[in-house]
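Feature request disguised as a bug: please show the residue count (459) next to AAA+ ATPase domain-containing protein in the output. Example input:
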Amino acid sequence: MHNVHRAANWFHCNGLQDIKLVNCVDLQLLYETSVDSTALSADILQIATHCLAELPENVARGIHSFQAKLKPVDTAEWTHEPLTGKLLQMLAQTAKLYAQCYAEMSPNASLSELCTAMTSSRWQYAIENRGFRAIWFDSGADNQARSLECLAHENSSRSNCVLTPQVEVLPLELQCALDPLLNLLPMEYKDAILAIEDYQTKLVDVCLDVGRIPYVYIGKKQRFVLNKDGDVVTKDTIDEILMNLGGEMRIGNDNRAGIDRQLHRISVMRSKTDEVYGLTMRVGRALRNAACVLTDLLLSDRHADKSVLVLGHPGSGKTTLIRDVARCVSETMENVCIIDTSNEIGGDGLVPHECVGWARRMMVKSLEAQAGVMVECVQNHTVETLIVDEIGRKAEVMAASTVRQRGPRLIASAHGDFRALIKNPDLKGLIGGSQQVIVGDGAAAKSATKSKLQTQRGG
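Example output, currently without the count:
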């Protein structure tokens, strides 16, 4: 077999849920275990090139053709009509190639048994992860990314020929105290939120505007109205919430306020006369171990001096990830400091939320001062890793460049995606900028635009 993820998920989704593998070996796992531990998803050509001195004639072309023909096949049609003869022939040729590769790799009995157990585990992981592969990091090999099946079984103990997995996968732990936020609201709004099923994990935003019906978001495109009678929010309601918060003086120059030692954020809308007429109350949550997916980038020696930029659209989880990155890196004894412009990473108040671990944080009086505080932090506090949430201005990009030139590693987030960042003249310096280059005819033909003048990353 080769890459059982898709097959496991397909069988499970189509009702065949009690399948038990017997003497099955995934060639990817055998290759990763015995040949190259860094190859988590070796394709069959890579494996065949290693195993066979000479590839059978047209095998590469045949495999690519088989994969191209198989992808568009609607699996629902498999039960209504047989596969075409040409596709069946390709399947037979591919199966023969799998057998040849296994024979050439000739695993001994111990390795064969190990890979059989790994394949059974991979089948189960694929079902649990809906067809996606499971990976973890090998702390004994500089946090190198490995297939979870390999880590779970390679150093396992044997008991009655049953392999016992020997790896601990850290679970995600959601940390969120909603009461301090809900207690700011009038009782009728609070009761309506408490009546929402699983509101502790679903609640995202509370939106209140004078003269309009109050509502909350409990997921993407999921709006829930708080007042079924059609009563609208009054100015007195807004003023009452601000009073419960501690008064309008709690609102900063960025029109945001927080709750002491909490991650929630209250943002206001102002009229032209500076009067508050709207509130957006964003629920802040810490997700412990969210940064585990970046373990190799954050903790391995080979990446110790490399900076990390997290890109994503609003609400995609950038700040949640950055919080746990601060905890993860600071627990390695590194001197970590957070530039917390809106007190959104560490929460409001003098004492930061416990989710940032040993990381220190510097508050910023205004958005305009963020770039200066970044440089000041490096100059004054012997920082090894500097963490900044939401770099969005040219001055901050210049400050980030200054920080890197002085030595510390920079971990930051920005809005958008890679393509949008390259096109942004103010922010493209975060990835080294871009430059116009002229490519050859072959490269131009392979590009989407077919143009010989192309934009490439400059750094």
